[in-house]
Amino acid sequence: MWNKPHLLNALADLLILAAAAALLAASAIWLVRVPALPVLVVVFAEPLPHTRQAEVEQVLPPALKGNFFSLNLDAVRGALETLPWVRKVEVRRIWPARLEVKVEEHRPAARWGEGRNELVDTYGAVFVAVPSADELAALPLLYGPPGTAAEVLKYYSEFAERFLTVGESLVQVTLSPRLAWQIKLANGMRVEMGREQPKAPVGVRLQRFIEVYPATVAQQAVRPTVVDLRYPNGFAMRVASADKGK
Global pTM? Predict the structure, then answer.
């Protein structure tokens, strides 16, 4: 072998590559274990409207273990996602000693049931949090069987859009355990929609009512307390007695 220069050159190249690999491995181990290069700054990309600084300071420090290279980003993300208002977290390193955190908070679209502090976000997910009194008062109330929040929110949006065309707003939508729909308007009127019917879907019955609303309900001296849209070809109205409660 000693009189074969090409073999010697190849062996030398292999030794150089092995030495370089060993050096890189040692450097990587040193970078991970060295107590230097700590993360000094955690920056949040955007203000957090609902999440308080005290909450962040409570859950974040235990997740900030290690240095800039060894820090577990999944642990940081997981710690922040335990907070009530936090929906999604993205974390990235910025050399030499910074973490940038991008937090997407839940955006409440409605209250879900009563007495449990449950809210529905714009994606239809249920979460538990306490909004401000003003924010809570502005949210509609939704009811439904477990696992139906996204569906109820979708129907609420459709119902609200149609009633908006006649100047009315919704305060409550309920899906019963028997899958019957009920609507309550801000003016106090209750609309019984019933279940979906193959020949008269909920949307068709509601649209028919909306089309005649200005000439019927809106013209009543006393608004009906209940409108029943469960009929396939019409609807019924009930008006509270004028002397009720006397």
Answer: 0.81
Place of tokens 């939508």: 173
Residue 203: pLDDT over 90: yes
Task: Read off the amino acid at residue 21.
Answer: A
Residues 72, 78: contact at Cβ < 8 Å? no
What's the CATH class of domain 41-105?
alpha beta
| HSE of 5, CA atoms in CB hemisphere, 13 A | 0
Helix ranges (DSSP H) in 109-236: 133-137, 149-164, 202-212
3-state secondary structure at position 217:
helix
Point out which residues pair with 175 in neighbouring strands: 181
If one counts every other C-beta atom within 10 angstroms of the C-beta of residue 144, the result is 23
What CATH class is the domain 108-238? alpha beta
pLDDT for 98-114, tens place per residue? 999 999 999 999 999 98
Q: Tens of pLDDT along 36-83?
A: 678 889 999 999 999 999 999 999 999 998 888 889 999 999 999 999
Distance from C-alpha of 221 to C-alpha of 218, rounded to nearest angstrom: 8
**Sequence ranges of the domains in the chain:** 41-105, 108-238
**Whole-angstrom Cα Rg for the chain:** 31
Strand partners of residue 102: 90
Burial 21-39 (b: 16+ CB within 10 A, else e): eeeeeeeeeeeeeeeebeb
